[in-house]
Amino acid sequence: xxxxxxxxxxxxxxxxxxxxxxxxxxxxxxxxxxxxxxxxxxxxxxxxxxxxxxxxxxxxxxxxxxxxxxxxxxxxxxxxxxxxxxxxxxxxxxxxxxxxxxxxxxxxxxxxxxxxxxxxxxxxxxxxxxxxxxxxxxxxxxxxxxxxxxxxxxxxxxxxxxxxxxxxxxxxxxxxxxxxxxxxxxxxxxxxxxxxxxxxxxxxxxxxxxxxxxxxxxxxxxxxxxxxxxxxxxxxxxxxxxxxxxxxxxxxxxxxxxxxxxxx
Length: 264
Fold this sequence. Notes:
CATH architecture of the largest domain: 3-Layer(aba) Sandwich
Low-confidence stretches: none
Strand content: 15-25%
Distance between the termini: 10 Å
Radius of gyration: 18 Å
């Protein structure tokens, strides 16, 4: 088998939305990593929220892409933190965030602090953010360049939120809308795909030997980037349409089917 680079989304792909990780998926990931493939977890989660999943999978080396591509780390058990930061992309989101705030006066805003947690304008719904949560004023969020902004509006549906985002018009940033009324802002051009391409070049893996599996709108670029892009069966139609193929849903261990096919 050629050396593969396999990018894996977390929520809805590796684990379900109750954080359940099946034994079959865990074993398939471990076997693929032991075969010599580069297994790269690529998620919208913060680094703080991603590392526990990496540990549950038993991955002790390799790269991890977090925050929709804004941060990439290399796992290294010899370091106290257990990882080395290899790439961080930052930007000034103050103008875009200000425009969103005009349309969402009751919206919740957060800025990720790498490896620690978030600065927030007010508490988010329980369990949505991990790490230390430091409540600050809106203007204090943007006193220096940031790697990621999260905007949350519990009073809106996901479709209403997308309509609002379209109405505001977001220029000069990358963005993705989640399952709920949740918006991620990132530096322009930064996605899971751009981060995986950086990793591919570092590892000198041929572009033809890339695989990606995901289920969310923030996975579309990653699925198109990979030579073999696989959407989960629980992915919405627009995500499945962006993929080369569709596997089973997370509830049926669809990821394990893909990984086992790579090992066959």
